[in-house]
Structures are given as C-alpha cells and as structure tokens.
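<amino_acid_chain>
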Amino acid sequence: MSSTIQELFSPPIGLKVVMSIDGFKLYSSDKLKKAFLQSMAKTSTAKIINPVLEKLVSKGLVTPCFQNKGIIKNFAYKFFASSIDKSIAGFFDTVTSKVVILVDNEINVFGFSSNYNLAVITLHECTHMFAKRKPSAFLSTFKQELRTYYGSAFTNIFQLKSKIKNLDNIIKFIFDLEKKGDTSNSMLLSYYYLLDVALHPITVLSDKEFEKILRGFISFIKISLVSLSTLSRELRNFSYIVGPLYRAYKDTFNVPNRSTTCFQELTIPSEVICVGVELKPTSKNAKAFKMLT
C-alpha cells in the first residue's frame, strides 16, 4: 500500500485547454501540475531537476497534460488508442521550445502513474529543451561526453586506427543539423563528404569496404528520417551501425543503454545527453537545468 500511495493520482477532470499542437488540443489544470510536482519530489531520480522544476512548470516551459478530457474518454483511450499514440509519453516541441508530458500514456485507468517513469521522461525531454534554448552552453557543458561518444561510435563503425583529428567539426556539423532540423538530400551529401574526408585516411578498411559502410551509414540516416516503420524492419541489416551506437554509451557513461533504440544520435546529438541523464545523472545535468530558469 505504501508504494501505491507514492504514485501520482490525478484523474482527468477539471481540465482546460493549455495548448494546441498540430491541431491536437492538450489539457491541464493547476491540480494536475501540483500533483506532477509532488510526484517528482517523491523520487530520487528527479532530484537534480527538482530545484528548478516548479519554475519551469510555472513558466509553462514544462507542462503535464492529458490528450483526453474526462474520465470516460480517457478510459476509452487507454484501451482503444493505437500503440504508436500510447507509446509517446512526452516530447519536446521544437516549435514552441517547450516540454509536454503526456500523462495519459503513463497513467493507468485508476489514475495512478509511476513517479520513476515521469521523472525519466521529464529529465530526458528537458535536456532536449536545454540544447535548443541554450545551444552554446549545451556544447560547452557536454563537450567531453560528446567527444567520447562520437569518437567511440565512429571508430567502431568505420574501424579507425587512430583518433579523429577534427572530431569537434563533425560534432558541430551534426548539432547544426539538430538546430536547423535539416533533413535534405544535400545535407546527406555534405555528411557523406565530411566523413569521407575525415575518416577515410585513418581506416583499416579497404577503399571498397569503407565506401560500402559509408553509403550504408548515409542510407541508415535517410531511412530514419523518412520512415520509422521501415527502419524498424531494416534494423538488423544495419547492426554494424547500431551496435557501435550502443557500445558508445557504455564507453561514455560506463552504463549500458537498454532503454532506447539507437539511431537519433546520428542527427540529434542532444539525444546522447538525454539518454546519458537517464543512465547516470551528474552535476553537469543539474547545472544545465538551472540555466533554463
């Protein structure tokens, strides 16, 4: 019973529209926000963001919401919504630069939700928000983690025999993709030539093998940007890319990543730090959250 008491309880009643994203209305209330903050205060997972979370919620930068208004409608959603809809527990809206926590997808039909799950989602999405709102501070704060991650990933994907001299330029290029949201073919071509110039001279692979892997690397990114369902079906064919992306988390944070599917890292560097804060929160993460207020 004691563990149940420590779960967020806030049934979907008394809600008002607080925002609309892509035509979909989202609902919240002062009671829900209060319950959310109380939930976060009860878990050690959220302790690095709790000192500033109330300010973020009061400013509307973080908003716990329901997609569905009313108990009956929410009950129906739990049973009849698509698995894709219900898999999105929270997100960072790049248009408004705000974090939305979808309580529908973490709460059960009795109104209870896992404090831990809500905390992990909040930490993850607020890290994306930090990268968007404070890009220079993001790069300077997590420079070493990004160097270690991408150094490991590229070394193992392309079988490199020495360190990458201009790794910072590659990281900046990828981070610029995230900031601009660039998914164009010209971007992919630039990505190809950047890696070819930087990595080809230091690989142990033959020219033919290197080119095959580099083309596969770019194809993998293209698929991830166009169709996640196709990516899911083809994931095994890209194990030579996905495997090193997973290994890089262990090399960077000394903890294996067992919670996400690795692919966003190749176009969204903040994903590395978002997963990192889930795996091993540090004082750097706490510092980053303070800069949001």
About this structure: Residues 122 and 241 are 28 Å apart (CA to CA). The chain has 15 helices and seven strands. Residues 2-133 form one domain.
